[in-house]
Amino acid sequence: MKCIRLTAPTLRQLPETKAGGNEKFLPEHSMTHTVEKIGGTCMSRSRELLDTLYIGKRKPKDCYDRIFVVSAFGGITNMLLEHKKTGKPGVYAQFASDDSGAGWQEALNGTARAMCEIHGEILDHAADRERADAFVRDRIEGTRACLLDLQRLGSYGHFRIDQQMHTLRELLSGMGEAHSAFVTALLLGRHGINARFVDLSGWRDEANPSLSERLEQALAGIDLKTELPIVTGYAHCAEGLMREYDRGYSEVVFAHLAAQTGAREAIIHKEFHLSSADPKIVGLESTVKIGRTSYDVADQLSNMGMEAIHPNAARVLRRADVPLRVKHAFEPEDAGTLIGPDGGTPGRVEMVTGLAVHAFSVHEPDMVGVKGYDRCILEALTRHNLWIVSKHSNANTITHYLSGSLKAIRRAEQEVLRTYPSAEITAQALAMVSVIGSDLSDLSVLARGLSALEAGGVRALAAQQGLRRVDVQFLVPRDKMETAIKLLHAALVEDEEQPVQRAA
After folding, report:
1. pTM for the structure as a whole
2. Is residue 73 part of a domain?
3. Chain centre to alpha carbon of residue 453
4. With contact defined as beta carbons under 8 Å apart, do 391 and 399 qualify?
């Protein structure tokens, strides 16, 4: 890639991954640049980022040797697709369910207004605001024309626009990241930084390259010593990132970019430290910054909905031997938490977190001694897009702890019953509280955790730990989740920590 001048005589091959092949080669020596990801909540505070992340106390020449991958401004992707938590329909969901077109048209207009309001607050110069307004207008009206064409096609019985819905979802997703990257480049340019808007969204691009090819083409000719690329978190490519990763696509792009360019370090900037518990639950003064941990722990956090990094993104970085750092975007002097092969400190609880789950139990006496009895259950859960957080089984009962809608769980239940009509199936609303650390072998977490819960008046309905001793899971009534987190954090973190740096 021209941007980093891969001219070293000794090269190594990038490990093969699911998204993108292994055709790229990297120098054996470490690169000097970093690849840094900024989430949507932080992006909405872009003017503050000028004084912390983008420029801060740096001299102009020290602002380079970095590549920024940006998410859409906070709330914009929800408006384009659907609300991630509440499910409130955005443009995509409105289009999918509305034949008249009134719903999605209104949603699209509302998104355009929100975009302009956001960059109107970020950009001070009138000329910059006008350029950003024109950018939004071009993308919005181009999208509107596309949706109208799809709607007209759908009015004819011979055409099935449902076959194009994945493509539409990708188109809409890319709009938010393109807007935030364009605005950020304008903002930095106004403050003397030679920023380059790098659009991976494929807007009006007839080609359909692989992710690897898209990244190489987009960064060709950029000199990282004198230019600061602001890259869209969405990339249009043959792999179809939305279909595979949905909202996790930006972290996947970020990871592939770091791996493919041989970055010295991959950095994720959040509005908080990666700390021992949610400060809203246990109190900010009680939390402890993790500081150092392993990719194994990062996987457990992702499994529990903590979103430290998408599992596939972590896998790409791990295979490319690129360390990952999670930093507080507004505390630039703090080193944050390093995630790498060396892991964290053995004998230390690093995180206590909880997740609302349903215990999906299938009891069938006839399964005793029968191989592969749970295949039907797994296939049903997969078909209905239910996330399996954990699993437990004995002679005649298999329990999956699931994250997903109760509606989807009921559909899966009916499907299983068609195969095993005599089975007893229950779906109980619970909470799973997980105690996580790089090596919990010598901490007696299970016994101490059960004692702490009992002393605090919380009845553990079940508990389990694996042989790897990376996490211990406690199942409690759903309305006791926060209480359980407080009790376990107090017993296993606060009572154990010597004077250490508290999470800010």
Report:
1. 0.84
2. yes
3. 31
4. yes
